[in-house]
Amino acid sequence: MIIRCRWYNVFILTGLILVFFGFRFLFDDSFDFSNSFPVDIDELMKICLIAAETSGFAIADMYQDGKVWLKLKSWDENGKKEFLTKADLISNRLIIESFSRFPDIKVISEERGKVDDEKFDFYKSQYYEKFASKENILANFPSMKVQITDISVWIDPLDGTQELIEGILESVSVMICVAVKGRPVFGVIHRPFTSETIWSVSNYGCFPDCSMGKNGMDMIDIESSIRKIALISRTHSGGAEKILEAALGKSWRIEKAGGSGYKGLRVLNGSAGLYLHTTTMKKWDVCAVDAIIHSAGGRMTDLTGKNLSYLPSSGETFKTGLLVTMNEHFYYLSKLLPSLSSIIFMH
Length: 347
Prior knowledge:
With 347 residues, the protein is α+β, with helices and mostly antiparallel strands. The chain has 2 domains: 38-207, Fructose-1,6-Bisphosphatase, Chain A, domain 1 (2-Layer Sandwich); 229-345, 3-Layer(aba) Sandwich (D-Maltodextrin-Binding Protein, domain 2). It has helices at residues 7-27, 41-64, 86-98, 120-134, 161-166, 240-248, 260-268, 287-295, 329-346, and strands spanning 38-40, 70-75, 81-85, 106-109, 145-147, 151-159, 173-180, 183-191, 196-201, 205-207, 229-233, 253-257, 274-277, 281-282, 299-301, 317-318, 322-325. The chain has a 6-stranded mixed β-sheet with strand order 4-6-7-8-9-10, sandwiched between helices. The chain has a 5-stranded mixed β-sheet with strand order 12-11-13-17-15, sandwiched between helices. The protein is globular. The protein starts with 6 loop residues before the first helix and ends with a helix. 38% of the residues are buried. Mean pLDDT is 83; it is low at 19-34 and 213-225. Its EC number is 3.1.3.25.
């Protein structure tokens, strides 16, 4: 028997197949043409913790060896020089390579270049040594699976480069943040020269126990119950000092400090009442701070009062400044608002 394949039969069969897959694509959520697949967030968190501490070890070691060479990276929007050190690039490489298990995750870092060092393999070996000590650190958290296409990782491999150059080492940190659909769910800040690591998990808090929030206070008691120190940037103040003086008066002391991570931790531990930034800010500079502050009960918003989005599709910068507090966030924002209109409406 001879079987003949007529062209119109092939056409009908092809049409039926296309209709079948079309209906599945439209109405079946489990059918996905993308490369998305679920990832355990707790595995990512462990990698972030180890990578931050490993990179911090490298930064401190290179500084002590006097191997932090310097070059001009760029000029910022205000005409100020931004520098790059070898420690920035080595730290960045260590962190980026630690995510090799998840090549499809969107990783956004401040640094783009690559550099080698004869001690790089030694620094990398610290990662494996730290892995064992962190193996069970997240065991008490339930497994949280998220589609890999919803995840973005924001990295500042060396926050406070200018401070490192000047020897203001307390302001230097390594910051890594995991965002899901633009919302920060995990953040870690490691301070290489104090060996301090602060990290947080959304809905579970900040670790070690660092919740300093005192929410629910009467309005008249707010300013008498916190330390009246307002932090602003050392190098990108953007008129913040005058804004704070007009809004808060002379009862507050304004302190210039370097490193977004350092300033965020100062607000977290109560040694400062707020942190104000009025110029453009890069997302990798604040994502980890945002995650930690929110997990500890505080707030970080732009100067319009909106939460910050870390969707890669929305760009790498925030244009309308930010305010960080642990208490009565919108009370302070309302006091600052009359002086902020030029910043808010400019963008």
